[in-house]
Amino acid sequence: MVQSGPLASALVVLWKGPEHTTSSRPPKSKAAVLEHSAADGGEMSALPQPYTPRRLTEVAAAEVDALISLPTGVLDDVLTRVGLRDAVRTSALSRAWRRRWEALPSLDLDFPRPKGHRGASKGLRAVDSVLLRCPGRVRRFYAYLDSLYAGRIDDWLIVLSRRGVQVFNLVSVDGIIVLPSAVFSCGRLTVLRLYGCALPLLPAGFVGFPELRSLALINVRFQEHGEYHQLEEIIAISPSLEKLLLWDVEIAGDFSQWLIQAPNLRHLNIRSAQDLGWNIGEFPSLQSAEIDIRDYLRGRDFAKFLAGFASVTKLVLCTRHSPLNGANILETLPCTFGNLKSLKLYTQFCELSSILSTFCLLRNAPNLERLKILIDDGVEQKYEANGEFQNAQWTDGMCVKLQFVQITGIHWLANELSFIEIILSKTRLLRTLSVSHGEKCSMCNEGVVNKLLNYPRASSHAEVLYEGKAKKY
Prior knowledge:
By secondary structure, the protein is α/β, with parallel strands linked by helices. The protein has helices at residues 6-16, 30-39, 53-67, 72-82, 84-89, 127-133, 147-150, 153-162, 227-236, 302-306, 352-363, 387-393, 414-426, 445-453; strands spanning 106-111, 137-145, 167-172, 177-178, 191-195, 197-199, 214-218, 221-222, 243-247, 250-251, 258-260, 267-272, 278-280, 288-293, 314-318, 342-347, 370-375, 404-410, 432-437, 463-469. 29% of the residues are buried.
């Protein structure tokens, strides 16, 4: 006997459409029946039976049983679309539905964390039961794990590797989870995302991830003795890799330089507190790069490192950190970013090294169209770079295609205002320059905005937009 409820109604709608649900089909009036009979030549048919609760339940049961007679592929698609939780709940519809979800050819085991919840995902205790009852392929596994469930990941990964898992997304919410070597047996992976995990040494005969397209390692540790060559090998023998994200990766052992080599890589994102020895190989397909290395490869040539991204169309770069050796970050570049259309800089105009780096990048991006600058809070101006100094950094052919500039978190410092004045007076194709201020401002907002509006402009179409206080970024 079918149970009434939103799930049963939803399945009926999927089967026949909303116009055929019992709740949307009220019984006809006697007048309507008589009118229909007259149209048929005067032969009056029997009046329909009233829709009692019992009859409504019987009609719903018949319609749900009709739904299960759909072609197998269609029914599998319906159950997959409603999600695992609701697919399991169809067991309550009728006897015919009791074990239907177990016959699904593939599963998505998604256990996202509720908004505002800091612990593990809910529903993880059902993973063992689902894997035992449903022998189908597991396409996706996504979960937040704490120490209570960390011990189960060994068995889960063994099963997932045998079931051909394609997307594996694991987040540790309670310390570092040491993964078993079975993670390297998941040969059909297309997406691998790990947060707060430790990877074991590569097993002998590891053939890589031939189908892997996206690799994200965040706060991931590599075991000692595996050292740098382990990460290098994982990337190198993943020939389909298109997206690579490395945030705060820890590599044990002595420092050693190694090569990031991925011929099909399109997007690269690196964030690290220190130089981990990376060198950039050839990236003929690379479209975008985001680089935040706080020590700027101290002891190595940071400009040469950046030259490896010369072909990108979008670049996000952090130059706000003070160089540890006191040297300038970028004064010259050995390349031109000829394809670069969009540049985002996390920087500040308080130190000479950051100011020179900004101008160096702009000089070497002749086709730049969009510039976004995000300025740090709490940095005091240590060097005066007035309009005369900044004007001396400008060269012919610089920013000739620049159309959109956005400066976020400005403090109305003299160096910042001089930069805005230079941009307005030099860029002939500029359309908009938008500004928002940070927490600490050195001048009254209203007075400074009026000053900005009176700066001379090289472009007759240029608009100056004041957006108030900047949101957190």
